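hey so i finaly got around to running the thing on Embryo defective 2752 from Rhynchospora pubera. pasting the sequence first so u can double check i didnt mess up the copy paste, my clipboard has been acting weird all day
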Amino acid sequence: MASRFWRWYADREFYKWEKTVLWDMIEPYRRPRSFAPLISIYVAAFYTGVVGAAVTEQLYKEKYWEEHPGEAVPLMRPKFYWGPWRVMNGEVPPSK
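ok and heres what it spat out for the 3d tokens, dont ask me to read them lol
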């Protein structure tokens, strides 16, 4: 049994380079990988962000309306931007 195992192992090691040579010859003629899965992941991530931003802004508006009924809701400060920013037609929300 042990000699059969070593024979199998030796054959596998000896003929491994032939497989490598064969696949190296075929490689230039292979069909290139598709970008469709990558693009679909990017599109799904983008729309997930859009939906998340819309939900966040709606929750912000509802919370503001509960605390200040009947008033206009000021613009929501950007979540992940801590630098200076200004609003062209309106007031800058107070910083927290």
